[in-house]
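[Q] Does anyone have a clean structure-token version of this?
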Amino acid sequence: MSGETLDTMEILDILQVLPHRYPFLLVDRIIEVNGDESGIGIKNVTINEPQFMGHFPNRPVMPGVLVIEGMAQTAGAMCIHSLGPSAKPNLVYFLTIDKAKFRKPAMPGDTIEYHVKKIARRKNMWWFRAEAKVGGKLIAEAELGAMLTEAGS
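[A] Here you go.
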């Protein structure tokens, strides 16, 4: 790594760049942030989250769509963070979800790691390859596309 320093985004940093709030904020921390190139989002799955009341009451499973959203929030926070503190407030919108695969469920008590790596960037659009892991094992993967726009646009 040649002495490169990687950023970390704590929850207060994430709240500054993403508009999402409970119960839809699905990343608690982002570690090893390398600009908009790569990073690892952390989500601590707890039984008191509202989706577990109905998904499923006798076997709580994190909905796959929320795992994908956590991947996207990790990537979006990294994109906005990489623009620096002088950038105008931005919103991140999904463009694409491709090649999504779900391999194992995440459950309360799990810590999900969202590993995201940039595939490409054109102007205000980014594409990422993302993997969700629990205990080092792959549970889901997808390619995600997102677009940044100025807040209020």
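[Q] Thanks! Anything notable?
[A] The radius of gyration is 15 Å.
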